[in-house]
Amino acid sequence: MKNNTCIGGGKCEECGKCNLKDSTGRKKNLTYLPDDFVPDAEPFGEGVQPLGIAFDIGTTTVVAMFWDLKERTLIDTIAKTNPQSTYGADVISRITYSSESEDRRHLMQAKIINCFNEMIEEFLSIHKWKEDSFIRATVVGNTTMSHLFLGVDASSLARAPFEPAFYGPVLKRSSELGIRMNPDAEIHILPNIAGHVGSDILGVLFASGMRRRKGLTLAIDVGTNGEIVLALNGRLMACSTAAGPAFEGACIHQGMRAAKGSIERVKIENGEVKIQVIEGAAPIGICGSGLIDTIAQMLDAGILNYKGNIVTKEAAVASGMDADLAERLRKGIHGNEFVLVWQDSGKDIVITQKDIREVQLAKGAIYGGIVILMQCMNTDPSQLEEILLAGAFGSYIDKKSALRIGMLPNVREEKITYIGNAAGVGACMALLSENLREQAAEQAQEVEHVELALHPNFEKEYLNAMYFPRQYPV
After folding, report:
1. pLDDT digits (tens, 9 = 90+) for 32-45
2. 188-197 core/surface letters (b: 16 or more CB in 10 A; e: else)
3. Which of 56, 172, 261, 363 could disulfide-link to 424, CB 3.0 to 4.6 Å?
4. Start-to-end Cα distance in the chain
């Protein structure tokens, strides 16, 4: 997707033509289509302006992309927090909750459908269309999200061998699901690949064209349910790893989503901590990209060792650390902590020892999964031609910081490419192409699945991957 065309007409994220912003004022996740993608011709008559929606159900965030199907143009993108988060930050928690009774399963389904309807209502209020104009939708998500969206019992996904109740694809009418569209609108739920590798990864494959790439390519959809794909000359292998919600700001002492007031960039230079805050507002917390930056900088400054331990103030002083930097080290209720921002209110923004452990668990799960896939394909990082970072959060990660904390294989920065919300792009491609919708099941079956929980080497590789690299990446 290196030279993809922005829907706004430009060639980069800052083309200025889309002007799509979310409630925080940040640019929304702009939707790109691969240059070689050709949508199907549609036999729409004169005066007909049919609309379509591509939904991407993430564990943490739900995104809706609204299209004019006749003109094949993106009209708007709306994102909301997944309302199921109230019942658990990860997929296993939600499976457990929804499996306790049929009422709970229907409640979880209603939460997502209501979320869809709220986004449609917001779109209609802004653009003054009629809901009958919506004639088609595509839906992608991890396997658990697909089950919960359809009200299907997902309990089998929480126990070995982690088989889904269905693979798909599934076709429904909007009237069957209660979605605010034309009653006869088609809702295409794209097929799952395996127990915890869902249609969102199929979307990534559509958008990235990994099946056609030569050489070894790695794609990582960074999120609460981290999904990884390795491709070698048309052979595809995938796994899912429970990275957890740390990179989304959850489980972090002062973590938050990427919204106004969130620290998104951190630099430590000459004993001074420099931060960048979304919208230039007063800092109130830290999001995932800021968290990764902070840990990378703490490692370089000697504040954090390779085992993930924050040094004490006394040890920092004894090592000759800058006095102002050492002064930021103190004891807190969660162990040693490092002060990022001093606040007059006394509510300083800090990184705690527990925060570090949460990141170690998350990045260890991702890197451990990468190692296992490479073992299964008899390859190693030295053979990598490219690493593709997918997901809304993946686009904000600083490459150097991700390498520094050992979240990615040790490659040169120029081999890492951001591909944005590729799952959403794939959903859009399927929305615009009947041919692609028909091919979806076949392409999903081509992917070899590796179940990490059942792999004999995963626990060892996971534990090793929790350590931070002793040396700076190449």
Report:
1. 788 888 888 887 87
2. bbbbbbbbbb
3. 56
4. 25
pLDDT tens, 158-200?
988 889 999 989 999 999 999 999 999 999 999 999 888 999 9
216-221 and 384-390 beta bridge pairing: parallel
**18: exposed, middle or buried (Cβ count in 10 Å: 0-12, 13-18, 19+):** buried
Q: Which residue has the tokens 């292998």?
A: 237
Q: Which of 112, 102, 221, 78 is nearest to 152 (CA)?
A: 102
Its CATH architecture, for the domain 16-204+431-444, is 2-Layer Sandwich (3.30)
Q: What is the token pair recorded at 147?
A: 């089950």
Residue carrying structure tokens 């300083």: 348
Strands (E), 323-383: 329-332, 335-341, 349-352
Domain boundaries, the chain: 16-204+431-444, 255-344
Instruction: Decide: pTM greater than 0.70.
Output: yes
d(CA 441, CA 156): 21
